[in-house]
Amino acid sequence: MNILFMGTPDIAAAALEAILDAGHTVCGVYTRADKPVGRKQVLTAPPVKRTAMAHGIPVFQPGTLRDAAQAENIRALAPELIVVVAYGRILPPEVLAIPQYGCINLHVSLLPRYRGAAPVQWAVINGEKTTGVSIMYLNEGLDTGDILRVSPVEIGENETSGELFERITQEGARTLLAAMEDIAAGTAQARPQNDAEALQKNRRISDLTRPPAVCTTSSAV
Length: 221
What we know:
By secondary structure, the protein is an alpha/beta fold. The protein is built from seven helices and nine strands. The protein has helices at 10-21, 47-54, 68-77, 93-96, 119-125, 161-185, 205-209, and strands at residues 2-7, 25-30, 35-37, 42-44, 59-60, 81-85, 103-107, 130-137, 147-154. The strands form two sheets. It has a seven-stranded mixed beta sheet. α1 (10-21) links the parallel β1 and β2 (25-30).
């Protein structure tokens, strides 16, 4: 398959390396803009850009995907599948509709429980025993697409979110490749998410079971 990759941080760079190592063709990479880093504010390329350039892959860093020019550029690249890993931008409907096999995303939790940002950190904060990775089709919602594959990852008793994230990065790359193989072979079986199982964004589990505060109003003028 001809793949267009979209991602930005280290976890995305690891996934891109795994895709290339597996022999897939990557027609281009979309990533976020270079940013000033450190005391001297040195303009620094994101990890995915550095990986792509090392392999001679065209890199695109638009400020938005919500314009006709970007949709036209993606059509010209002719991707059969778009793979997204921590890109940091929502794909508009006109982009989602371009690839023959759709757009898939690596999410670092067992969906639908922790949708949105920082799912690894929230799993640790909430004392979860297990987290994992999910590969899903992208739709217009936030982490609401049909799930292709999941892979559980146990959380160590004293493990920090940083330590856990390192292990999840490797498991995520492996699970992503397996989902891509399913799609290429025509054997992918996606299942819808149960929205009732999703926690509210950025909420502790204890907050969801705590009685609501009683609000009172005064009649004094």
